[in-house]
Amino acid sequence: DTEVTQTPKHLVMGMTNKKSLKCEQHMGHRAMYWYKQKAKKPPELMFVYSYEKLSINESVPSRFSPECPNSSLLNLHLHALQPEDSALYLCASSQHRDILTYEQYFGPGTRLTVT
Amino acid sequence: AQSVTQLGSHVSVSEGALVLLRCNYSSSVPPYLFWYVQYPNQGLQLLLKYTSAATLVKGINGFEAEFKKSETSFHLTKPSAHMSDAAEYFCAVRGPNSGGSNYKLTFGKGTLLTVNP
Question: Is-contact B93 B34, C-beta < 8 A?
Fold first, then answer.
């Protein structure tokens, strides 16, 4: 099974709402990633978890809060977002963060619209 | 720091024609290179990767890429385009860099492939 799943597929939220995105993988991967992708642009790295610990935050605003409850799950908690945060949010995983030959497997993404 | 440049933001080919998507890398050490494909409203799927084992790499869906150190290139090719190949293609690089963030996957800006009937 080489699948990364993400829920929900689509999300519309107001600027005062609190919502969460969920990502799951059962490949035994120990590195998990959140990316943000705007239309017609490449993905931009937001957060990296390695062995369930946050190892990098790419200067992401605090209205985005990641959480890694266990080795298979990754959440992204959203609060007080702005319309410019509307994007496709992609989750990815890889066997190990630092072994460069290992590819990242991507989920299908959550299409987020902030109104 | 590692980087990749994709030449041509949009490539259009006829069905059955050769597909050539260009990617040049910038690296002071041998890099690890990847090609991903993204179909509309979907995530990224790995097509192939170069990890120094062989310079000609074969991937899924009939795609292949050749690593050319002298040209710092890793172009993606497919002999005969199919309508289902229409998608966005991203070249990406990982490799040792001075910042210590070896894990980072740096993407090119992407090339949109259109296949005409």
Answer: yes
> A100 and B45 in contact by Cβ < 8 A?
no
Rounded to the nearest angstrom, the minimum Cα separation between A17 and chain B is 24
CA distances from B67 to A12, A43, A45 (A): 43, 24, 26
For residue A56, name the pLDDT band (cuts at 50, 70, 90): confident
Tell me the two tokens of residue A88.
């496709």
Closest CA to A76 of A36, A25, A43, A38: A36
- Burial-class residue A115 by CB neighbours within 10 Å (0-12, 13-18, 19+): exposed
What's the one-letter identity of residue A106?
Answer: F
pLDDT tens column, B67-76: 999 999 999 9
**How far is it, in rounded angstroms, from Cα A87 to Cα A81?**
12
- Whether B110 sits inside 8 A of A109 (CB atoms) is no
Length of chain A: 115
